[in-house]
Specification:
It comes from Dokdonia pacifica. Residues 4-131 form the Sugar 3,4-ketoisomerase QdtA cupin domain. This is Mannose-6-phosphate isomerase, cupin superfamily. It is a single chain. This protein has a single domain (2-132), classed as Jelly Rolls. Helices cover 7% and strands 43% of the residues. It has one helix spanning 124-132, and strands at residues 6-9, 12-13, 20-21, 34-39, 47-52, 57-63, 66-71, 76-81, 86-90, 95-99, 106-111, 120-121. The two termini are 14 Å apart.
């Protein structure tokens, strides 16, 4: 359900020389098994367009901004990520689309699983059927 998606504040250490954000221990409700990032995404392009059966993800706008559209098959929610000390936790079973990337935007993703194609649902109708079942 969309309500299980939430913004998590990343612990940080502030310093006049610059801030340090730290993701460790219990920051996320899972062990991180895969890290990747999106960058140089054209402003008129979108990423995502899938859901996961088992994998949970945490998205952080390290630089710039982008919007995330979440869909649980019943309702939709649009969020803007634009702060490097806050991230979006997306549980399993949520369709996500990332769009409206600003110039220089970088989206960091911390995933609970290594890449497995069979974990993805890439067809929206198949996603709807899976949540209606």
């Amino acid at each position: 359900m969309i309500e299980n998606s939430k913004i998590i504040e990343i612990p940080r250490i502030t310093d006049p020389r610059g801030n340090l954000a730290v993701i460790e221990k219990n920051t996320l409700p899972y062990e991180v098994k895969r890290v990747y990032y999106l960058y140089d995404v054209p402003s008129d392009a979108y990423r995502g367009g899938h859901s996961h059966k088992e994998c949970k993800e945490f998205l952080v706008a390290l630089s710039g901004s982008f919007e995330v559209v979440l869909d649980d098959g019943t309702s939709k929610k649009r969020l803007t990520l634009n702060k490097p000390n806050k991230g979006l936790l997306i549980p399993t079973g949520i369709w996500r689309e990332l769009e409206n990337f600003s110039s220089g935007a970088v989206c960091l993703v911390l995933a609970s699983q290594e890449y497995e194609e069979e974990d993805y649902i890439r067809d929206y109708d198949a996603f709807k059927a899976s949540v209606d079942a």
